[in-house]
Design goal:
Layout: E1 3-6, H1 40-44, E2 54-58, E3 62-64, E4 70-73, E5 82-87, E6 100-102, E7 110-113, E8 115-119, E9 122-125, E10 135-139, E11 142-145, E12 152-154, E13 160-164, E14 167-170, E15 178-180, E16 184-189, E17 192-193, E18 197-203, E19 210-215, E20 218-219, E21 222-229, E22 240-245, E23 248-249, E24 266-270, H2 276-281, E25 283-287, E26 290-295, E27 313-317, E28 328-332, E29 345-353, E30 362-369, E31 377-381, E32 396-397, E33 408-416, E34 425-430, E35 439-441, E36 446-447
Parallel strand pairs: 1-2, 2-5, 3-6, 4-7, 5-8, 6-9, 8-10, 9-11, 10-13, 11-14, 12-15, 13-16, 14-17, 15-18, 16-19, 18-21, 19-22, 20-23, 22-24
Antiparallel strand pairs: 24-25, 25-26, 26-27, 27-35, 28-34, 29-33, 29-35, 29-36, 30-31, 30-34, 32-33
Length: 448
């Protein structure tokens, strides 16, 4: 492991002399010009730099590239990667966020490549950037941007980018601040958006799609859409899989304005809301325009109560593209649904609809580990044995009470035995176009 030091305040004049074998102590002011690089880019250009090395940037470092873009190319070799971190100007062996580098002000961007981690840096660009971050994690960074749309442009093939505890400060505007494409994978954890925007993620057409997850982020200043598609043409909708979990959202946010027609676009939003109470029970899942979401007006009387006494059900709305061969699948792992291996268990799902339903329209699959070979999954289903030619059997009528009733109340019961003691996965397959008649499913599964 070697240590490289950066400061434009001294200013540094070092070029390619290699890093220090041991970490220095004390203030940057004790170093000479030839001990220090003037910019991070110059330190990264040192041919001796390899994975495990640390680039220490003085917390008062403030480099402005003026009229050119900036590219940080980290070595892409096997190992833990290179660490770039802001350190205390007065104590160069102590972490302190604040070091800053700016791409040029003339529509210039920041680009990254390679493998590593970046700590406590303040990074500014004047247009869309962050492309090429192959396998980089940003910790405690402040990311600022002069553009009003798609500021963090994660559209490079093979990207795997993570932002943790970062402050996101793009220019206020009407666009989204993250763009996804080219198969890029990215994650934002405990990040905060500090400027008002009208959207979060945009999927870029004809770019190979991507996957993006947000966990514990504060997006309360984003008043528009969580996920939008840059194309309305199915031929150019490559698809994005996005999820939001435990995020603080704006009170007027919408999940998506788009009508998706294929399953390549998927959005899941869990326990994310504008208020404390709503966060407990918020649920939304959209697969290709077919949705399931919480409804706090219509619910089974005997369902769970949350801490504010709210009760909910899952309201399922499917489209004409839904069939036995293209079902909408809602996976549940409900509280208190605990199977035993001492005897058989019967799980019962309660639901209601204005439609007459059969087990070819809605069926359940219970998945659980085998009691003897726990590494082998067992499953039990209520689906007709013949998936094509069997008409299906009308579901069993239920006497359960609901806050608002529909024409038909049903129950689907599944008896399982030979499984290990566990909390099972329960998949509900909806194979029917609900049309104007939504399907309401109780999240509480009874076990007897």
């Amino acid at each position: 492991m070697a240590y490289f030091y950066v400061s434009n305040q001294i200013p540094g004049t070092k070029t390619v002399d290699g890093g220090d074998g041991t970490a220095r102590t004390g203030a940057f002011s004790s170093m000479t010009n030839t001990d220090v690089y003037a910019t991070v880019t110059l330190a990264l250009a040192d041919s001796t730099l390899t994975h495990g090395d640390v680039i220490c940037v003085a917390s008062d470092h403030a480099y402005d590239a003026a009229t050119v873009p900036l590219t940080w190319t980290l070595p892409e070799t096997e190992g833990s990667g290179v660490i770039i971190m802001s350190v205390d100007t007065a104590n160069c062996d102590s972490y302190l966020a604040g070091a800053e580098e700016k791409a040029g002000a003339s529509n210039d961007s920041f680009s990254f490549a390679g493998l590593g981690a970046i700590y406590g840096m303040s990074l500014y660009q004047s247009q869309q950037g962050f492309a090429g971050a192959k396998d980089i994690t940003f910790f405690d960074c402040t990311i600022s941007d002069g553009s009003t749309n798609d500021n963090i442009y994660l559209t490079t093939d093979g990207n795997n980018t993570r932002f943790e505890n970062c402050t996101l400060s793009p220019a206020a505007g009407s666009g989204t601040f993250v763009a996804v494409g080219s198969g890029a994978v990215s994650e934002f954890v405990n990040c905060t958006l500090t400027t008002a925007r009208t959207g979060i993620v945009e999927g870029i057409a004809n770019s190979g799609g991507g996957k993006i997850d947000f966990v514990g982020c504060d997006f309360s200043l984003a008043s528009g859409n969580l996920l939008v598609d840059s194309s309305t043409d199915i031929a150019t909708q490559d698809g994005v899989i996005a999820s939001f979990r435990d995020c603080k959202l704006h009170a007027s946010v919408t999940y998506t304005p788009d009508t998706w027609t294929h399953d390549r676009y998927q959005l899941t939003v869990l326990n994310s809301a504008a208020t404390s109470a709503a966060r407990e029970y918020q649920f939304y899942k959209n697969i290709g325009g077919r949705t399931a979401q919480n409804n706090s007006t219509i619910y089974r009387t005997a369902t769970y109560s949350f801490s504010d006494a709210t009760k909910v059900c899952y309201e399922v709305n499917t489209t004409a593209s839904t069939s036995r061969h293209r079902p909408f699948i809602l996976t549940l792992r409900p509280r208190y649904t605990d199977l035993t291996n001492a005897a058989s268990d019967t799980l019962t799902v309660e639901l209601q609809s204005n439609d007459t339903l059969t087990n070819a329209d809605v069926y359940v699959v219970v998945r659980y580990p085998d009691s003897t070979n726990k590494h082998v999954q067992d499953n039990t289903t209520t689906r007709p044995a013949d998936p094509v030619f069997t008409a299906g059997t009308t579901l069993t009528t239920s006497a359960e009470a609901w806050s608002v009733t529909r024409t038909n109340q049903y129950k689907i019961s599944v008896t399982v035995s030979g499984g290990a003691a566990c909390v099972p996965y329960v998949d509900i397959y909806v194979c029917k176009n609900t049309g104007a008649n939504a399907l309401y499913i109780c999240p509480k599964i009874d076990v007897s």
